[in-house]
Amino acid sequence: MEIDQKTLYNTLITMAIPVFVGYVVAKLGVVKDDFAKKMSTLILFVCQPFMLATAVLGAPYSDTLLKQGLTLLLCGVIAHALAAAIGFGGTFFFKDKSEGRILEHAIIFGNCGFFGFPIAKAAVGDIGVFYGGFFVIVFNVVLWSYGVFIIGRANKEMKIKLTKIFLNAGTVPCLIGFLLYVLRANIYPPVYSSMKMIGDVCTPLSMILVGITLAKIPLKSYITEYSSYYAMALKLFAVPIVTGVVLKLLGFSDFYTLFSAMMMMLPVASSTAMFAQNYDLRPELAAQTVGVSTLLSVVTIPPTMLLIEKIIHLI
Fold first, then answer.
1. 306: CB partners within 8 A, 6+ apart
2. Alpha-carbon Rg for the chain in angstroms
3. Exposure pattern of 275-300 as b/e (b: 16+ CB <10 Å)?
4. How many domains does the chain have?
5. Within the chain, where are the H helices?
6. Which of 43, 212, 238, 301 has its CA 20 to 30 A from that of 15?
7. DSSP secondary-structure letter at 109?
8. Which residues, 6+ apart, have CB-to-CB distance to 17 below 8 Å?
């Protein structure tokens, strides 16, 4: 998989600008305190389903593409298992349960959808969104099972619901899109265009939301919450490098190895901040980890991709 570094940088910079806009409008008081929560709900339950469904439906059907998607589904399972091992091993010594569990969650779960789709598209073209959809299926299943279990270790009020593991705003649209794709259903073009138009606003809105979140964090927290930088180092460097090496050793091709590593080097998922806010588990720490990792990824993703390419070519 050949990645145009200039295109990748341009995509990352393009995504960083809405973060800055969100920060500014929040500091200027343009948005109210409850705006972020309402906007998050709109993105997750209205815009995201359309984005995920059209991600799978947007590619022409072929047995080859289906096989590649299913192979990436397997890679996603292995990659998240590796991330879970790194997250657990890297945070088990934290005495503060809330801090440890939030950082463990942050290390495992990356922004595969809102952030991952544009990066995948920049890396391999429009088909990258199709491939990314299979990774998001794994992400959501793991998020609503093991991700909930992690938070539950610090907050006993949070219980795993079997229905939510497979029936949520992330997995259902992907599965519907996947079934329609396999059945080779023809979506009326204007309907598909409308679905895609709604889904396309997810990324800019989510980046603006990150900026709004950053604006609410006291500046001193960026210095005192040093543990978040430790988690970011594991998330942005250790997880993707280990993923790339292990997948290569397991015999996967360079394409699957690099694409999977790329999807695992994304910034911390916004779900970490949402879980922290809902269950009052160090919400400022979670918000900082999400926001700062998003900004840092603009700098870390391109060189990390180059490093992983060089490593797997030596294996």
1. 5
2. 18
3. bbbebebbbbbbbbbbbbbbbbbbeb
4. 1
5. 5-27, 35-42, 48-57, 63-91, 97-108, 116-124, 127-142, 148-152, 162-166, 171-182, 189-200, 202-215, 221-224, 227-233, 239-249, 254-264, 270-278, 283-314
6. 238
7. -
8. none
Q: pTM score, two decimals?
A: 0.88
224: domain range?
5-314
pLDDT in tens, the chain (315 residues): 666 677 778 888 888 899 899 999 999 999 887 787 788 888 888 888 898 888 888 888 888 999 999 999 999 999 999 999 999 999 999 988 889 999 999 999 999 888 888 889 888 888 898 999 899 889 988 988 898 888 887 776 666 677 777 777 777 887 888 888 888 788 888 999 999 999 999 889 888 988 887 888 777 777 777 889 999 999 999 999 999 999 999 999 999 999 999 999 999 998 888 778 777 788 888 888 988 898 888 889 989 999 999 999 898
For the chain, what's the residue count?
A: 315
Q: How does DSSP classify residue 217?
A: S
Q: What does the block give as tokens for 151? A: 């938070």
Token reading at 109: 């779960």
Neighbours of 314 (CB within 10 A): 8
173 contacts 58 by C-beta, under 8 angstroms: no
Q: Give 280-311 as a DSSP string.
A: TSSHHHHHHHHHHHHHHHHHHHHHHHHHHHHH
Give, in order, the Cα–Cα distances in Å from 222 to each of 26, 28, 88, 151, 173: 18, 20, 24, 23, 36
Q: How far apart are CA 187 and CA 189, in angstroms?
A: 6
CATH number at residue 170: 1.20.1530.20
Torsion sign over Cα 271, 272, 277, 283: negative
